Amino acid sequence: MASGGRWAARRSRWAPPLYSVALASVVLGPLFGNGYLLLRDAVSTPRSYFTDSALGVGDAAARAVPQDAVVAALSTVVDGGLVVKAALLLALWLAGWGAAQMSRTVLPSAPLPALLVASTVAIWNPYVAERLLQGHWSLLIGYAALPWTVVAALDLRRTGRWGWLAVCLAVAGLTPTGALLAASCAWLCASRQTFPLTAGLTLLASAPWLVATAVSGSGATGTDPAGVAAFAARAEPGLGTVGSLAGLGGIWNADAVPVTRTSAFAVLGTALLLAIVALGIGPLWRRRRNPVVTALAVAAVLAIAGPALAATAPGIRVGEWAAAEVPGAGLLRDAQKWVALAVPFYVLAAAAGVTWAAAKLGNRWLPGVAAALAVVIALPDLAWGVGGQVKPVEYPASWSVVADELAGEDGDVAVLPAGMFRRFPYSGDAAVLDPAPRMLPLDVLQTGELLVAGGSVRGEGSRAEAVEQVLLDGGTPEDVAGLGVGWVLVERTTPGQLGNSAAALRQLTVEYEDDELALYRVPGEIRIEPTDDRAVVAAHLVWLVLLVGGFGWSVRTRKAGGHET
User: What is the pTM assigned to this prediction?
Assistant: First the structure.
């Protein structure tokens, strides 16, 4: 190969990851400052712990398994805030790089500008913006794994090498939703011969949350049907539900959207994005004999049509029935998150469209630059922390003092005011998840009740509800201790329901208090129910072995002379 050809090939290989990390840095810039991510559902803390809740064997559903255990392990050697910041940066970086890699694999003739447009579409879109604002950092890791999963599944079809697919499924499997998203892509791209192995790897990658659900019994009963309507996809201005979802927006929370998606500008932004995607549908149609392209196109249609139908009155009724009667159906609520499955096809279509336009115009760069700029213009306020909304906060020193006070102690912790969400002076305007469960070394009871759109969605934490009611009624220490609670933490700078808890607190022993927090010890004998978490720990180890073993096997096969993506 001539030196010019070698340079072009080298540039085509390294430009997408460099471009993607730069674009990801533009999005996350403010987060690189001192402090911790505390925004709606995102809670990062200096240190997390291996509590029963972190392993998924508490009352609540195992929604953050094995994520919480992984963060707990990493935070023993690295500050937990840095872990989450690094994870978010890696997620957006790998989403962009993976989009380019997938486009190169499926469309070998795509020039470098087309690959960079693919990266831009994967990073710079309303789905990423809205999930950042909702605090779903670990969901974005699963999202980032999707294009890599497609590449790995194709490599398995061609060569039989499974290592990279195991890594992709394990990384996406940090959360149940991520595991299902990646499994969907892997299964769609599998052949008849590779499907059994793909299904087996999927089960191993999902072992932590599947076993935790079985052991805790949290998935054996239905969830509150009220959550179906509350978490249904939402129409954005001028777009309707279908248009919002097709534009990769439509999250249920109207507060977790960029400013440009709250006005008529959303129509322009969606039109620009869909125009770039539409440009490539013709070229991709000519590849319809490629089963992977066809499968991803079908997935994109279903990922948009499914949540749209689920948001209709009949769809909500079906969803409410499933939530009440079908174990595990609660995982399907927040239907807009499944729109992530449309992104692989969108990315391919954008790359194919730019490739076609470049050939027609005889100019490799002009269509690519124009398309990338259009994607950015479609959502200008994704830049710099979605208009400065995604930024770190500093915790008061009181939290560290309370965590040290509880180290080595027994009994669970109850929190006041009632509820799971807080509005601290240091946490901004949005309600945030209580940081106590991830901040403290003991299990912190959480009811799981969510306040959504002026109503509430009941959670799974029945014991937490009982403890909360005892405190609000001014119950005795014996009542509290009988429910396994050894401590009560009062968070003083957030509004919330306190009821007659002052009467209950007067009967407890103050261990620490300041203007921020007050920690009370429950006197007497604490009734502690032993938890057998051996099966769950074993499932976490299976997940870890899959991740490390898959990576090791991938490296080994590459060194043996085969090229594995």
Answer: 0.96
